[in-house]
Design goal:
By secondary structure, the chain is α+β, with helices and mostly antiparallel strands. About 40% of the residues lie in helices and about 20% in strands. The protein is built from 5 helices and 4 strands. A 4-stranded antiparallel β-sheet has the order 2-3-1-4. β2 and β3 form a beta hairpin. α2 packs across α3. The two termini are about 15 Å apart.
Amino acid sequence: MQLDPGDLQLLAALQRDSTLTAQDLGDALNMSASQAGRRKQRLESDGIIAGYRAYLDPEKVGLTVQAFIQIVMATHTEQNARDFVRLTKTRAEIVGAWTLTGDADYLLRIYCADLTALNLLVQQVLLPHPAVSRVQSQIVMERVKSDAPLPV
C-alpha cells in the first residue's frame, strides 16, 4: 500500500500520542476531523496501525531488572524451534523475542522483579529446556534511549 504524506503525518502523530482524537489529528494535520478519522480507520483496517497500548514504567510496577538473553539452540530442528517459540510466548518475563543471524539463534528481552527472579528463569527454565544449548545474558545497567517511534 502506498502511503501519502498525510498518512505519514498521521502515523507520526499517533506514535507520539495514540490517544489523539480525530479532532486532535485533524487540527494537527490541517484537515477535517472526519477526514482524519477516515484515514485513521483505513490505516487500522489495512493493518498498518497494528494496535494501541499503554507503556508502563517497569520500575514503578516492580520490574527492576531488564536483561537481554542470547540463546544458542542445541539442534536446529523444526520441533526444537516450535517448542522454544512456544516457551517464549508462555513466559510473561519474556517481553520480546527475535531470531538472529550470527552466533546466537534467538535474542530475548526480559523484565524481572530482581536478580533472583532472572537467575531462576535462566537456571530453571531456559538452560534445562531440551532445545537450548547455551544461554548468554546481559543485564541492562541504564536505558539511554527509550523505544522510539518508527521513522515514518
